[in-house]
Write a structure and sequence with these properties.
NTP_PyrPHydrolase_MazG; Helix Hairpins; ATP diphosphatase activity
Length: 292
């Protein structure tokens, strides 16, 4: 990049001009709080995708797109006389300083710790203090439940993980992962029973219960369900694309062949990835192997 670099104030000016009813962009002028939300979610996922792909050269652009969403909401608020971008920066900085007394001992951004190096501070103590401070903040909002501020718009898997984590903090949890595994088996049995009785709607509801139980298992393993499901999605996509490519090489399309043929190429894709082949149609495969 050559020439003078744009600064944050330039970005705020850009947004103000885009939203100007006389000189701005018609598309930007007609946007509102609700219309931008889907774009915000999409941009957040694009950031996550770039990070998971280690596409660091794409990150400045993707992070910029995400920052642009914050600037958008700040502009809406400024136009309505509610707050502006600088208020957002102030609130964020003040909150982070308040939540890190082990870093800013005097509660000011200029104060510094002088006792022991940061890496020697007990992580468990920091996490406990962080959660305590967040609980104090929630108490100040007259919360009636530990679940109150879990956003409803979160993806279902992420929200399930947060809901169960909040409940676990107050003791509503299994003692270990074995209890969660038992719950998963119980929910799966209920799905099978509903299907056997031809109760389609009930079976669908039980699948929801099953998914929630699996999310709880993910939580006990300290694994982000969204992250690992995205990884599985990517793995499935890669293997199925291999099946399609192999079929085309042999002069076929997926619609032209039977399941056994597609299964053959699926297992070939698994072998190429170094995973032991396991038939998707075998009745003799153990539950543990199927889970893999």
């Amino acid at each position: 990049m050559t020439g003078e670099r744009y600064q944050l104030e330039d970005l705020l000016t850009l947004m103000a001009v885009l939203r100007d009813e006389q000189q701005g962009c018609p598309w930007d002028v007609k946007q509102n709080w609700d219309s931008i939300v889907p774009h915000t979610l999409e941009e957040a996922y694009e950031v996550a995708d770039a990070i998971e792909r280690r596409a660091y050269d794409e990150l400045p652009g993707e992070l910029g797109d995400l920052l642009f969403q914050v600037v958008y909401y700040s502009q809406f608020a400024s136009e309505e006389g509610r707050f502006d971008f600088h208020d957002v920066v102030h609130c964020l900085t003040a909150k982070m300083v308040r939540r890190h007394p082990h870093v800013f001992p005097d509660g000011t951004l200029t104060s510094r710790r002088t006792d022991i190096p940061a890496m020697e501070v007990e992580t468990t103590q920091v996490k406990s203090r962080w959660e305590s401070l967040k609980a104090d903040e929630r108490a100040g909002r007259e919360a009636t439940s530990v679940l109150d501020d879990v956003p409803r718009i979160l993806p279902a898997l992420s929200r399930a993980a947060k809901l169960s984590k909040r409940a676990a903090r107050v003791g509503f949890d299994w003692p270990d992962s074995r209890g969660v595994l038992a719950k998963i088996r119980e929910e799966l049995t209920e799905v099978e029973a509903a299907l056997a009785e031809g109760q389609h709607e009930e079976a669908c509801e039980e699948v929801g219960d099953l998914l929630f139980a699996v999310v709880n298992l993910s939580r006990t393993l300290k694994a982000d369900p969204e992250r690992y499901l995205r990884a599985t999605n990517a793995k499935f996509e890669q293997r199925f694309r291999y099946v399609e490519s192999a079929l085309r090489t042999d002069g076929h399309l997926p619609d032209d062949v039977d399941l056994a043929t597609m299964e053959h190429y699926w297992q070939e894709a698994k072998r190429q990835s170094g995973e032991p082949p396991i038939s998707r149609s075998s009745d003799n495969v153990s539950q543990e192997e199927e889970a893999k």
